[in-house]
Amino acid sequence: MLSDNYSRSLMYTAVMNNSLIDSKCISELLECGILDTYKDIFELIQSDKDISDISDKSAFKIKDARDHVNDLTETYTRYEKIIRKCGIKVISTDSGYYPAIWKGLTGMPRVLFLRGNETALKKLDEMGAVSIVGSRDAGRYSLYATGEFTSRLASKGIVIVSGMALGIDRAAHKAAMDSGGVTVAVMPCGCDQIYPFQNADIYNRMISTGSAVVSEMPPESSVKKQYFPSRNRLISALSDCCLIMEAGEYSGTLHTASFAAYQGRDVYVLPNNIYADNCTGGLKLINDGAFILLDEKDVIDSVAERLLYRKIDSQILTDSEKKLVELETIRRKIDKTPEDVCDNDVAVVVEDELSVRSLTADEICSKLKLPFYRVSQILSEMELNGRVCIEKGKYALTMLH
Q1: Alpha helices, DSSP H, located in 179-295
Q2: Would residue 289 count as lying in a domain?
């Protein structure tokens, strides 16, 4: 038998995937105090506990599940056999491996199934992660760039997340492992299924070398068309930023980019051939405001910023790290919407630049990418307040700092 925690999580999954009960029904039961936790749902179905306080729609769903409790029990037993046979881990919300990166996101699964090494999820939270996705029928340029960027990021300890598809996904998973890194594949089926079968070598290598294959779908779930968008939302949710290496105008890769933007992740797009149909979608993303992927350092900076914010949530940030978060936040606002940044915040960044070395006004403008008229006005105000002084034609911090 599985542990009680595994069993209750698996029972919940059996109910959610094989009955009329859905998340809305679970939420109502929790709000009414009928359930203490979502894992109590199977016990409720097996009991004759009064449910008169809930809506007629939810009551009907509970009654239907009670009428089919034997079928649900058989399903649970079948899941349990597959889990033991394949060595699948069941990751629930109270598990130490449940992704902390999902904090603040809605619609994330309460239970995740995993083959391979569950510490890959822990590393994802601690070291950061980048999702790398693109066309199944990718060109040589995109595949080459995928290998290069993946290798550089993975060598820094960043976890690479993708979807185990052919083309870009396969190249990303392979390059991550080739460089000694960790990669996580999110499947559009149960994690006990190899899909597509052409990636059997990648799949087997991942589950035996410290990486992980995960799915929100229970064991034995086969691939269905409607699972792909759900899979894509998890790919982006498990990453700190998303790299689009190649995407046609109607590519499913664009779903991942949309989910990433909605979830607050930065989206980077590899600049590509304007005449290739396979690249039209990515180029339109750039036109809509996505970052152009030119240097892995930009991606690493995005990951580092989000890692700092996770430390803030965990209340383990030092004073110097708090200052760094403040500076990075202002810098990103200056880069994206400079008109929304107040002069005081710009002055904070100017002081940070001058803490390294003295600079001319033109050099400060170049570093901050702000017009001279605005920078010169701020510098004049800082000089009047005694925050900076001019030495040999360059601005420097005063002794007050």
Answers
A1: 200-208, 227-237, 253-262, 280-287
A2: yes
Contact indicator for 12, 112 with CB cutoff of 8 Å = no
User: Distances from the Cα of 352 to the Cαs of 69, 324, 325, in angstroms?
Assistant: 64, 10, 13
Q: How far apart are CA 131 and CA 134, in angstroms?
A: 10
Q: Which residues of the chain have pLDDT under 50?
A: 1
Per-residue pLDDT, 3:
53
Q: What is the largest CA-CA distance in the chain?
A: 86
pLDDT score of 321: 64
Would 313 be classed as within a structural domain?
A: no
| 159 shares a domain with 30 | no
Report cis status (omega within 30 of 0) of the bond before 109: no
* Pairing, β 241-246 against β 129-134: parallel
The CATH number of the domain holding residue 382 is: 1.10.10.10
- Would you state the pLDDT for residue 110? 94
Backbone angles phi, psi at 324, to 5 degrees: -65, -40
Long-range contacts of 273-276 (CB under 8 A, 24+ apart): 273/139, 273/141, 276/139
- Supply angle C-alpha 187, 15, 20, rounded to 5: 100
Residue 126 within a domain: yes
| Chain position carrying tokens 């701020």 | 378
What's the rounded Cα separation, in Å, for the pair 27 and 31?
A: 6
How much is the pLDDT for 392? 87
The parent domain of residue 343 ranges over 333-397
